[in-house]
Amino acid sequence: MRNIGALAVALVLAHAGVSKAHPITLDGSDADWIATAPIGFNVARVQRDASGRGEWIWVDEDDDARTDLAGGGAEDADLREVRVTATATTLTFLVRMDGVGTEAQDAQVQIALDLDRTDASGNEFFAGFADLTASSAARWEYLLRTRDFASASPSVELLDASYAPVAGAGSLAADGAGLVEISVDWADLGLAGAPSAFRFSVATFRESATDGNTVGLGDASVSNALDLLTDYDDRINQSTGTWPGEISMGDIELSHFAEVWMSAEGEVIAPVVVTRFLSDAAMRTELIEIANAAGAAVGLAGFKVGDEEQPDAGEGMRVLPDTTLDAGAALVIASATPFTASFGAAPDIDLASLVVFDAWGGASGSVALSNAGDEVLVLGVDNTVLDAVSYGSGAYPGVTVLGSAPGDDEVAVRLVDTVDTDDMTSDFALFDACDEDADCGPCFECTRYACLPRPMGASCGDGDACNGDETCDGAGSCEPGIALECDDSNLCTADSCDATLGCQNMPLTGTSCADGDVCNGDEVCDAGTCVAGTALDCDDANACTADSCDATMGCQNDPLTGTACPDGDLCNGDEICNAGTCEAGTALDCDDSNVCTEDSCEAAAGCVNAPLSGTACLDADVCNGSEMCMDGVCAAGTSLDCDDSNPCTADSCDAITGCANDPLSGTSCGDGDVCNGAEMCMDGTCASGTPLDCDDMDPCTIDSCDAVDGCAHEPDPACADAGVDAGPMDEDAGVDAGPMDEDAGVDAGPMDEDAGVDAGPMDAGTDAGPMDEDAGMMAMDASVEDAGAEEDAGRDASVEEDASMPEEDAGRADAGMPFDEGDDGCGCRVAPPRSDARGLAFLAVGALLFWRRRR
Question: Is the pTM for the entire model greater than 0.85?
Answer without folding.
Answer: no
